Amino acid sequence: MRVVMFGYQTWGHRTLQALLDSEHDVVLVVTHPRSEHAYEKIWSDSVADLAEEHRVPVVIRNRPDDDELFERLKEADPDIIVANNWRTWIPPRIFDLPRHGTLNVHDSLLPKYAGFSPLIWALINGEPEVGVTAHMMNDELDAGDIVRQEAVPVAPTDTATDLFHKTVDLIAPVTIGALGLIAAGQTEFTKQDRSKASFFHKRSIEDSRIDWTWPAEDLQRLIRAQSEPYPSAFTFHKGKRLEVLAAEVSQGLYGGTPGRVFYREGDGVVIVAGADARTGRNPGLAITRVRTEDGRELGAAEYFTTMGGYLTSRP
Questions:
Q1: Among the listed residues 143, 1, 160, 154, the one whose alpha carbon sits nearest the alpha carbon of residue 82
Q2: pLDDT, position 311
Q3: What angle do CA 189, 193, 194 make, to 5 degrees?
């Protein structure tokens, strides 16, 4: 089939590479300009560079809503558009233009985690598995019929980076497998159960701020989700920003006020956590490694030389 690809960053790069390696003919690529946004500089393999290396025409757009692009698309005469990590709304006159419509590839197990940063949110929320879904695009974001979907388990120590590598490897089989079904003439696919749908916003630095009223289990997953190369989860100690690089749920139960620097446990220093910490029935968060405001990385026992005081959400 003749394919136009809309995509950005490493997700789009992997999708384009899969298409180039397939039997399909990539006739045009549309991608976003480079961004200096903290999250968009992560996994930033260039779709434009890859297309140019293979002499595929490239169009750069923030939004695909101008008449010039529409005319280029009509001239390309695609059988299908394939999109992955396209960050702005694609209007119906574009996604309905090809004979077979538009196939969107999304890194979650739809209908859950539509929208942005699905792997990070799924890890924070303790999902047992994540995956990639190829679905037909319609008027509602990430809501079209599912053509193909594959899942991978989330291990107890997985970080967001681990989940990225697990799911990015699913892009090629999910995308090319879905195109195979469409090329073979299949037109009926799996409807999404919209009662199970959830929609998440793009993460920002503010979302990495630690709230000590969260249960320790949730905080430990937040720290794994915000591990390198993502901006680290952070708190404040004595008015200065402190990044938490590694932590574990404590073995013991600790009571008191959330955020209290309380007790040495193994290699960690336990911080009281949970909205009901006053009951003494919660584990705490045993911080094991931190980064100070001036960039020093230290073991928690080296940083917290005395117990007492509080970690806070704000200076």
A1: 1
A2: 98
A3: 120
Q: Which long-range contacts (CB under 8 A, 24 or more apart) does 147-154 make?
A: 147/103, 147/178, 147/181, 147/182, 147/189, 147/190, 148/174, 148/177, 148/178, 148/181, 149/109, 149/110, 149/174, 150/174, 151/109, 153/128, 153/129, 154/122, 154/123, 154/127, 154/128, 154/129, 154/130
91: which 2 tokens?
């209007």
Burial class (CB in 10 A: 0-12, 13-18, 19+), 215: middle
Three-class HEC string of 125-162: CCCCEEEEEEEECCCCCCCCCEEEEEEEECCCCCCHHH
**Is the confidence at residue 37, as pLDDT, over 90?**
no
* 137-153 residue pLDDT tens: 999 999 999 999 999 99
Give first-to-last CA distance, the chain, whole Å: 57
In whole angstroms, what is the distance from residue 139 CA to residue 202 CA? 20
> Six-digit token pair at 17?
């590479």
